Sequence to fold (445 residues):
Amino acid sequence: MKTKMHLAFDLSWTHLEGRWRLPGSWGGRVYPDLSIYREIASIAERGLIDMLFFGDSPGMPDTWRGSAEESIRWGIGFPRHDVSPFLAILAQETKHVGFGLTYSSTYMHPFYVARLLNSLDHVTNGRMAFNVVASSSRGAAANFGFDELMEHNSRYDRMEEFIDVCKRLWDSVAPDAFVWDRETGLVCDPAKVHEINHSGAFFKVKGPLACVPSPQQHPVLLQAGGSPRGIKASAHIADHVFAAGKPQKLKVKHRQELDAELTAYGRDPAKVGVLWEVIVVVDETEAEAKRRSSQLLNAIPFEGVGAFISGSTGYDFSKLPKRFKLADLNAEIIATNASPVALVHRMALADDSGSEMTREEFFEKAIKIATGYDKTIAGTAAQVADWMEEEFEATGSRGGFMIEHPMTTPRDFLNVVDYLVPELQRRGRYRTAYPGKTLRENLAA
Fold:
């Protein structure tokens, strides 16, 4: 029997970077209209999708030319709301689909986040995932009172301690601690509630978490580190990994490195899936899919591209020299504690010749990355399913795909559910019913 893959919808960018105005997106409704998310949730549950995922950054991209002006003008990483209230509402209108919520361990406090995730897991009847991130956004750093980015490896040290504290808080009240005995009035057994008394390099937390244990006890933990230190952090904390959509040989390498780190931690690699990011444009014919995907190249203007790539990397690309080497540029980016595995790193992996490139050549490639065109798989349902099967098998058939940054919403989500999902089901690669009640159960099946 073939191993089935998992699918999630990433809603982080549905309204950003020009996608909101492309043909196939909603007319007459704009972010943050709750009816948009109600409709997406309905589509996802009809397609037996595992999870609706919401990435986030608490800062506005303001690295390009030292200003947020172009981000504001063109909707680059802006606007963004805290979606936790949205999820509470969507959970009442769905029964199965899970919800992935993102918070930064670089700036948030574990007690607050552990308490919030516990409450949301109750509200959703055990369908919450926590995507923990280490922030490389200078805009976010400034919003939390920091003049500079935290050193790269230190961000992951803090993340690991953050999650360790959350786990201890979630476990500080035993699942059977609450009695609620109406005759005696006994509420909870004190012997089953414990302080954690944590004192570490970054946090000091007494505990316990003054909450009823949630349906999953712990929400599903997601992490997306791609650097060697990030992969090590994934192995330490993640139930499932969210990983970049890179060439197959690099996916295989990522999976191998993750498995080695999991084994070193004494964890079973077979139980930790990877959801590989991918943008798909599925249509009735290959020609139509490719025609539609080409519209991405005109979604945002040059200044918007500059704002996007500078904000996502933490480096001001308006200062590029006329000629340079990608390897030298990436080394400069790393030295500033910005992201070492972002845009320039991806470019260098695709072109390892070590030759110089011009500023114009750089931006020609950058627009394809900024819009996601470089990693968009466009074709018929059969063609896209062929690609997914090949990638899935090459990377160990553990996990699946995070279908992210849809070119248009709802059209491209509808095409996934109406064209791609049935094709995967015919191949025995996708479920025909939700197997469990909680998100953790569904992802484990």
